[in-house]
Amino acid sequence: xxxxLAGLVLGMAxxxxxxxxxxAPQCTGALPPLVALPDRLHFGDFWSALTDQVxxxxxxxxxxxxxAFAQRHGADSSxxxxxxxxxxxxxxxxxxxxxxxxxxxxxxxxxxxxxxxIWKAWLRATPSDRFAxxxxxxxxxxxxxLLSLTARHLGVRGVGLFYPTWNHVIAGWSPxxxxxxxxxxxxxxxxxxxxxxSATFDETTFKTPKHVYEYPxxxxxxxxxxxxxxxxxxxxxxxxxxxxxxxxxxxxxxKRAELFQSSLGDCTGFRRRLAAALGPDLSCADRRLLxxxxxxxxxxxxxxxxxxxxxxAGP
Length: 315
Prior knowledge:
two-stranded parallel ribbon
């Protein structure tokens, strides 16, 4: 990692050409504070804090995606209940997917389709802040179970496991029919298996089923004690990443998943296109996240925004 970063810093010609920058916007807003946690923490406290943390975020970067989603499904884009579900679920999806900002890595594990082993691993060792540090390894059904469980605790109902093939699992969401008139299931590719690099929330090549059953398991009881360090890590990741644009999140996730050597193939072209599009059009939230990556996750605070983008787009 150190040698790769050094090479990128020395040879930034591609980044400066492919990612031209216009005058940076004046960013006066600040991130919301980290939600306070009790001294003795239980999972029920964490789920409540996670909901509060998500709701504190400025989710305006998701509004264009929501408008396109509503149009695709014949829904009313002014439906605030649907918007809340969409925004909460989209953030949970970005956190829990392979290479997402909770840093799960896909690999076949032959475990049961639940999130139990993920929580056990996280409770044994709090994940690292480093960009390419795997928090734990989990199979497609385990990752999907974690997303489904997280969604339910965020108040989003109807999220469960869907088998597009006999040997693969992704998530499906059955929103209330009153909110989504065509009553289609929304597919969420928690890994990129059998999919292109660009596959994402409601954008896959899998055939859509008529219905998906909500994930029924509890996995971890609300009364169980939880490590405060783990809770802070998960909440802090939501706080730092949750206001960024979907394009930047896709770029970061693709880079991290390739470093993980997980469910993606070679996504270099996809990442370069994203970085080129982002370069002249960074929001304040995007700039904050790039700064966080440089200072904390890459441990190279001197890196400029263009240099971090070049790292994310590079080999």
